[in-house]
Amino acid sequence: MRNPEAGETSDADVVLLCSDGVQTPAYRRILAAASPFFKDMFALPQRESTSITNVPVIEVSENSEGLETLLKLIYPGLDPVLESLDDISRLLVPAMKYDMIRAIETLRRLLVSPEFVQAEPVRVYAIACRHDLEHEARVASKYTLGISVLDSGLSDDLKHITAWSYHRLLDLHKRRSQAAVRVLDTAELDEVRCVQCSTAHYGSLCPPRWWTTFAQRAREELRVRPTSDVVFSMGFLAESANNGCHRCAVSVFEAQAFLDRLKR
User: Fold this and answer.
1) What angle do helix axes 85-97 and 121-130 make, rounded to 10 degrees?
2) CA torsion through residues 79, 82, 88, 93, sign
3) How far apart are CA 65 and CA 115, in angstroms?
4) What is the pLDDT of residues 59-114, one digit of tens each?
5) What's the CA angle centered on 15, arms 10 and 16, to 5 degrees?
6) At residue 51, does pLDDT exceed 90?
7) What is the mean pLDDT of residues 126-155?
8) Helix-strand-coil percent breakdown of the chain, rounded to 5?
9) Across-strand partners of 53?
10) Helix 101-111 and helix 134-144: axis angle, to 10°?
11) How far is CA 136 from the centre of its chain?
């Protein structure tokens, strides 16, 4: 037997027999403290091992690689390095099964870390929904507002969530989009002027061309990605001002206070 932490002969008092036949030493006291599942199990008579060791043997359905990583999440010392959502998704299954609170909390924190939730928010949302992690699902859902959900890549994690969870995400996008467009359509334009293209029309000044172009393009963008990040970016505003009016760029600059209020 090898110690999963130090790689040396272990003085462990229980052996976990993995699905791949590997015997992984563990510590009964740590397992019982970390998992009510194991605490209750240790109250039952345990199977005796072969001549390799004289400590109890418990069969588990996990393979040795996954189990040793899971044990490191509950053992004192540094947490293992988990570099992908595959690792987190895979470890959440046994962590939930054994009700390992410390391991679950670590995995939940990693699941919504910026490196994952910014790169693959839909997948993070799916993993969170699969394990009924409501807080993490809400965090991930906010990040999905910056992408087109229907255009995001398919992942196996989506196979494990309900139609209700997926519909809830699409409904969030729809409601946020409608609300954002409504704010855009009801904006007060009294202070938005261009000295060249804001001309009098039926006794009042028309909005400048850049605003008309901006509002049209923003509606299209917000229907897909209902977030202010894109539509109020300098690149998006500059393209809206590129409409044949040579003074619209100045008008956009002068309307920054108005645009800041609209963005908020």
Assistant:
1) 10
2) negative
3) 24
4) 899 999 999 999 999 988 767 888 899 999 999 999 999 999 999 999 999 999 99
5) 125
6) no
7) 93
8) 55, 5, 40
9) none
10) 10
11) 7
**Look-up: residue for tokens 């590129």?**
242
Is the pLDDT reported for residue 233 higher than 50? Answer: yes
Length reported for the chain: 264
Residue pair 86/111 in contact by the 8 Å Cβ criterion: no
- Whole-number Cα distances in Å, 173 to 81, 176, 184: 34, 5, 16
Q: What is the DSSP letter of 160?
A: G
Structural element, H or E, at residue 2? none
Query: Read out DSSP for 19-68?
Result: TTS-EEEE-HHHHHHH-HHHHHHTTS--EE--TT-SSEEEE-SS-HHHHH
Place of tokens 């809400």: 138
User: How far is Cα 91 from Cα 67, in angstroms, rounded to an integer?
Assistant: 9
Q: How confident is the model at residue 203 (pLDDT cuts 50, 70, 90)?
A: low
Tokens 């000295």 label which residue?
195
Contact criterion met (CB below 8 Å) for 15 and 56: yes
Q: Rounded mean pLDDT of the chain?
A: 88
Higher-pLDDT residue of 153 and 188 is 188
Q: What is the pLDDT of residue 6?
A: 38
